[in-house]
Amino acid sequence: MKAAPLLKIDFNTRKALMFALTAERLSAYYEHGKWLTDAQGATLAGEWLSRSKLQLALSERRLLSELSDQFARQLADTLSREAGLYASHEMMEALDPNYQSAFAHDMLDECERLLRENGVNE
Fold it and tell me: Which superkingdom does the taxonomy of this entry point to (predicted)?
């Protein structure tokens, strides 16, 4: 029996992936005081995608990893510790599609803006 072919991902999936990577980075930072490396982020993205039978070139996973790192560090630099913990919590909760958060929607919009600014399009 042949394995199902891997599918390419669209812009919305890239946006969601960047959001999830940003959430994971913030969570790791606030829980353990350490930032994920770009390689760890790219690997994590690849693992998530493979579970859904999706694929994205390593160069694109690295770009998403780098952008999520920049975004997470920007958030951490501009928020108090309490606000950063809240942001991290809200973003991690929002990884559940049934969880609704105005803050998470704003962060998703910011991910979209950052992707477009960096040449990641449809």
Answer: Bacteria
